[in-house]
Amino acid sequence: MNTLAGKHLVLGLSGGIACYKAAELCRALVKAGASVQVVMTEAAEHFMTAVTMQALSGRAVYTSQWDAREANNMAHINLSREADAIVVAPASADFLAKLLHGRADDLLSLMCLARPIESVPLLVAPAMNREMWANPATQRNVAQLKVDGVHVLDVGQGDQACGETGDGRMLEAAEILEDLQAFFAPQLLAGKAVLVTAGPTYEAIDPVRGITNLSSGKMGFAIARAARQAGAEVTVIAGPVSLATPRGVRRIDVRSAQDMFNAVQAQVAQSQIFIATAAVADWRPDTQADQKIKKDGSGQTPQLAFIENPDILASVAQSDRAQNGALFCVGFAAESHDLLAHATAKRLRKQVPLLVGNIGPSTFGQDDNALLLVDAKGATELPRASKQDLADDLIAEIARRL
Ligand code: CTP
Predict the structure, then answer these.
(1) How many CB atoms lie within 10 A of CB 215?
(2) Which residues are catalytic?
(3) Structural domains of the chain in order of their starting residue, each with its CATH number
(4) DSSP assigned state of 292
(5) Distance of CA 357 to CAs 154, 261, 372, Å?
(6) Which helix (H) or strand (E) holds 111?
(7) 378-386 vs 368-375, strand pairing mode
(8) Dihedral of alpha carbons 93, 75, 185, 188, sign
(9) C-alpha span between 289 and 239 (Å, rounded)
(10) Which of 39, 65, 287, 388 shows the smallest number of beta carbons within 10 Å?
(11) Handedness of CA 230, 236, 242, 246 (dihedral sign)
């Protein structure tokens, strides 16, 4: 969900090599429709020029509390009062320590201290060497900052500029962007656990061949992201897809319909909402050859026979928890024609309160879609839009029905 449009953010940079990522973050925030006022510490200016940040944000950067451009010479008050949030990225170990103690010897720390604590949230994206991050002093500071109401984002893991490997890298700009979008999103599903199936399944014929379909998993992953941003604990059970896992979403990869069925059965008891977007293969070959089936030169083709796969959605929807309302089930219908009639019939057949119809051939692999929501009261159209926008709308529709 793009919740950043129209937001005014102060982006603070303290000293660290991760300042290079702050440039990309600034660009992404502006692209998402936010206005960005950059404030840099003196240490940050050793890593990134104010010129770059000014060009990316379209606003002159503030670096000093003695900046005479403000008529009242109170940049720390003026800049913090107009912000919807202050985001410090990168937040160095030293800057976190200063925040903890309420020190205010430069503009950025002064502004953080002077912000109206109820109305201007402070988010920090730590960035430091792994030993600095693991140091009890830093861990103590982070724990106390959380108690003080500061939103401390995660750190990344991996190669560090110093040549070491471990925890403490700043998150990538795209990850921080996603966390910020979630931060501003209405928490419609707070406290709920959501289970989503996504993508196609793959039914093996032999070790190198199989039957699958054109589902890309994009709609399911967009729904998982939207549910996560709405505050839910989300698990996505994905068939073979090549998509990045949305931030904060737990992912279980499976291959066949039977694998997906087993994974769903193992997870669903902990969920309050089940959304079946996967294009599950209805049938699988009744036998699976251990070795590749070879041509024998006779011109004979292999005879394939099929057996039906378990219907994952129907089995979940018929469980006691779904029937007594403890589990809200949402089905999808990928049709090629007569969407309303098929979706209406499928909703009744699968016994789900909400069924979402779409025209499969015109959406598989695409970034946009159009949905038809069918429930006991009738049908509502969600007109063609990006899959992410539709996913956000669908999550709102589900939240309304809970
Ligand atoms: N579904 C499922 N398990 C299956 C088949 C389908 O969980 N074995 C779910 C899908 O994830 C979707 C819904 O059921 O939410 C409808 O899927 P669809 O393939 O459109 O319907 P089918 O039941 O397969 O009916 P048909 O192929 O006859 O249209």
Answers:
(1) 25
(2) 162
(3) 8-184 (3.40.50.1950), 193-401 (3.40.50.10300)
(4) P
(5) 37, 22, 5
(6) helix 107-114
(7) antiparallel
(8) positive
(9) 21
(10) 287
(11) positive
Which position has the token pair 């693991």? Answer: 134
β pairing state of 203-206 and 35-40: unpaired
pLDDT at position 353, please? 96
**Closest protein CA for atom 16 of ligand 1:** 333
Query: What would the mean pLDDT of 205-209 be, rounded to a whole number?
Result: 97
Say if CB 332 and CB 358 are below 8 A apart. Answer: yes
Only one residue has tokens 């300042």, namely 19
CA distance 241 to 253: 9
Which residues make beta-bridge pairs with 328?
A: 273
Find the 257 Cα to ligand 1 centroid distance in Å.
11
Q: Locate the ligand 1 atom nearest the alpha carbon of residue 308 and give its number.
A: 8
CA distance 62 to 135: 31
pLDDT tens for 30-54 read 999 999 999 999 999 999 999 999 9
d(CA 307, CA 342): 23
Rounded to an integer, what distance in angstroms lies between the CA atom of residue 220 and that of residue 235? 11
Ligand 1 pocket by C-beta < 6 Å: which residues?
A: 197, 257, 276, 278, 280, 282, 309, 311-313, 331-334, 346
Cis-peptide into 240, omega within 30 deg: no
> Distance between CA atoms of 92 and 228, rounded to whole angstroms?
28
Output the residue whose Cα is nearest ligand 1's atom 12. 332
pLDDT in tens, 362-396: 788 889 999 999 999 999 999 999 999 999 999 99
pLDDT at 34: 98
Residue-wise pLDDT tens digits, 299-324: 999 899 999 999 999 999 999 999 99
C-alpha span between 134 and 154 (Å, rounded): 13
Q: Does residue 329 register a pLDDT over 90?
A: yes
Given a contact cutoff of 8 angstroms between Cβ atoms, the answer to whether 329 and 352 are in contact is: yes
CA dist list (Å): 155 to 89, 150, 300, 361: 11, 15, 59, 41
Question: Looking at ligand 1, which residue's alpha carbon is closest to its atom 20?
Answer: 333
Query: DSSP states of 205-243 as a string?
Result: EETTEEE-----SHHHHHHHHHHHHTT-EEEEEE-S---
Q: Looking at ligand 1, which atom is closest to the CA of residue 333? A: 20
Q: Taking residues 345-365, what's their average pLDDT?
A: 91
| Cα 397 from Cα 315, distance rounded (Å) | 23
For residue 57, the CA-to-ligand 1 centroid distance in Å is: 47
Q: How far is CA 126 from CA 46, 99, 346, in A?
A: 18, 12, 49
